């Protein structure tokens, strides 16, 4: 029988790509998702359970019913700007609901959790590329919720023997190369899909949020990492813990920083279409430059991204974006 893995947020962007890979690797994903941000159609692999992490009894029931000891925990709100406006919802969903999940796991003796953490836990970095031992000083509520959970995991590990890995993603981007799933947020706040909507003629222009940052072209620099490569790291992290690896955190990025303008240039190359821009004010809570060193993930997990190039990442997103159009 294939090993069951609970995937909270498995109908979401990164979670659905992880389910596809889990299934391909012979695991049985059990998606637990309230569909508040995910899509039922994205949960195509394994078993789907509509449920909310606010309901601890429902979490326990699914863990017991499917005899689950391993959990991939994706379910969370993940927009920096929204977290600044609505910290209550972010602490409730990302922190309080994760506490429910951890309590449920302890109570039914599920012992392994891979957590979707974020480079937002570092805040404004002293040095780039950022390594895992860089101080974590988040500058927005979203990053603070993720850091709070990392600390909860450490305490649950010490006290109850919970085995855990936190994966600190840099900027998740791109889509399943086979085109079955991709990024589908409503409203869409992320740069690459917005730029592609402009290329597709669905928006008149893209706004550059701040052209006065202390970066070479004045726009924010980010490290874009393909969503299928993130999925890969989750399966490797499960195997790492199953093989006796210790509780830890890994950065997941490509180590290359691209500015907002460079992302727009890439999208123009990939799509062959013009992408008009306007310059707008900075978005609150955005650090100038976030670029990660993922040497540890490469060495310890054997992580080897398949899509490290920005144009390749944008290309998979563009193919997903154009699905269904002739
Ligand atoms: N950004 C932008 N215009 C947009 C959306 C995003 O200039 O319409 C910038 C944003 O300020 C950040 C970068 O693009 O510097 C990546 O933003 P995104 O929302 O994609 O990811 P985040 O870094 O917030 O996780």
Protein model, in words:
There is one protein chain. This protein is α/β, with parallel strands linked by helices. The protein folds into 2 domains: 198 residues, NAD(P)-binding Rossmann-like Domain (Rossmann fold); 98 residues, UDP-galactose 4-epimerase, domain 1 (Alpha-Beta Complex). Helices cover 39% and strands 18% of the residues. The strands form 4 sheets. Strands 3-2-1-4-5-6-11 form a 7-stranded parallel beta sheet, with helices on both faces. Strands 12-9-14 form a 3-stranded mixed beta sheet. A two-stranded parallel sheet has the order 7-10. The N and C termini lie far apart (42 Å). The model has no long low-confidence stretch (mean pLDDT 96). Bound molecules: uridine-5'-diphosphate.
**Which second-level CATH architecture of the largest domain applies?**
3-Layer(aba) Sandwich
Radius of gyration over all CA atoms, rounded = 19 Å
CATH fold type of the largest domain: Rossmann fold
Bound molecules: uridine-5'-diphosphate
Count the DSSP helices.
Answer: 10
Shape: globular
The profile of the biggest β sheet is: 7 strands, parallel
Beta-strand content bin? 15-25%
Distance between the termini: 42 Å
Number of distinct beta strands: 14
Unreliable segments of 5+ consecutive residues: none
CATH class type of the largest domain: Alpha Beta
The CATH H-level homologous superfamily of the largest domain: NAD(P)-binding Rossmann-like Domain
Q: Structural class, from helix and strand content? A: alpha/beta
